[in-house]
Amino acid sequence: MTELGSDWRVVDGVAAAWFDAPSLREGAALAARVVALSAEIPVDVRASGVRVRLGSDEHAPAVSAAARELGLTADPAALQHLSVGFDSPDPGAVMPFWQRALDYAPTRDGDLADPLHRDPELRFRLSDDPRPLRNRVHLDVVRPASAVERAAGLGEPFGAFGVCHADADGNEVDLVPGDALDEQGRTADWQAVFSAIACYRVTSPAQQAEVAAAAAALADGAGYPLLVDLRPGYVVLDTGKDRWDADAHGLDLDFTGLAQRLQTAARELGATADPAAPRFVQLYFDAADVAAVRAFWVAALGYVHDRRTKLTDIVDPRQLNPVLAFQEIDVADTERRQQRNRIQVELAVPADLAQARVAAAVAAGGRVLDESVGRRRVADPEGNELVVVSV
After folding, report:
1. Among 9, 174, 245, 246, whose CB has the most other CB atoms within 10 angstroms?
2. pLDDT surpasses 90 at 41
């Protein structure tokens, strides 16, 4: 879409741009300019830059001009978008399960999406292949305890921790209740759902920009790389997985104290917390050779290892896409290891970057299973599938 300008690429059918920024404050300044154009534009502010996604071409020139005025440079190579694909003989039978588990909304394409467009979409495809054994991929979903209690109709939980549920096809989700960030109630707006998250309702783009700017200033002042997402009617403040914990963020900082200051600032600006809205979603892979499978996904997705060596997590360095984690299974579990999963990862990238991304995946031990226009299906060393989409 050259008419959008060189800053922009089409990713997952949406015009998107990433602008490098040296601080949250400067990223929030661009976000304020963007939401002044339209309150419907989702903006993700990070310590290293800003992602903007447009529903139409209309505002692309103005956003690019605002970025240039603020001294921010676009980097299209940073753009990608992960979603989760499900093969099912009856997609209509399994979708209600996932809608309740995640509190997602149906899309115009017949799939399911996070209403705030922060967590990965779930996409359902008709497939009659018999796959009777357990997947080697499942989802972890963490929501506030009250929201988990209201997710009725999922059946009795099972598994070692009593939080696993399965849909009619056997696809599994660990639906985990979150907790308060601080047991003393000093951060009542925050929920610990693997990430620590506070979701604030706002009534105008001006208020939204003020809350984002205040949060950015406080986080920059503390040296903390907070995630600040602006959505229609919301500002979401997020630490990223576990990064409210000192062992995970590695800073000389008590995040609870910063959370208190962020909460006070948001409330003073008139924002109202929505305690039911926080949600965390990650993908978990079972693997006989964790190191080999993990290396494939690091290369294919451009992810990095979690700083804690005791964990197998890999993370998006810009904290825009879901965490992947890995656990070891018995190498003798041959039948399950040979069965094709019903769940795949779908990675949307700009068309001019797709071939390089596939090449990186193959160099890391993957193999191309098939390809068509704008779509390549690649298997990792143990057969877990990545679909690279560039249309």
Report:
1. 9
2. yes
Residue 183 pLDDT level (bands cut at 50, 70, 90): confident
| Euclidean distance between CA atoms 106 and 114, whole angstroms | 9
Let me know: does 358 contact 388? Beta carbons within 8 Å: yes
Residue with tokens 């924002």: 271
SS (H, E, C) 61-78: HHHHHHHHHCCCEECHHH
Q: What is the pTM of this model?
A: 0.96
Residue 189 confidence class, pLDDT cut points 50, 70, 90? very high
- Cα 49 to Cα 35, 203, 319, distances in angstroms: 16, 25, 11
The neighbour count for residue 340, using CB atoms within 10 Å, is 16
CA distance 104 to 300: 27
**DSSP designation for 3:** G
What is the C-alpha to C-alpha distance for residues 381 and 73, in angstroms, rounded to an integer? Answer: 37
Per residue in 241-291, pLDDT (tens digit) is 999 999 999 999 999 999 999 999 999 999 999 999 999 999 999 999 999
- DSSP 8-state assignment for residue 158: B
Partner residues linked to 282 by β-bridges: 140
- How confident is the model at residue 2, as a pLDDT? 42
What tokens does 287 get?
């693997």
Stretch (H or E) spanning 236 = strand 234-238
13-50 burial, b if ≥16 CB within 10 A, otherwise e? ebbbbbbbbebbbbbbbbbbbbbebbbebbbbbbbbbb
Question: CB-based burial of residue 109 (10 Å sphere; 0-12 exposed, 13-18 middle, 19+ buried)?
Answer: exposed
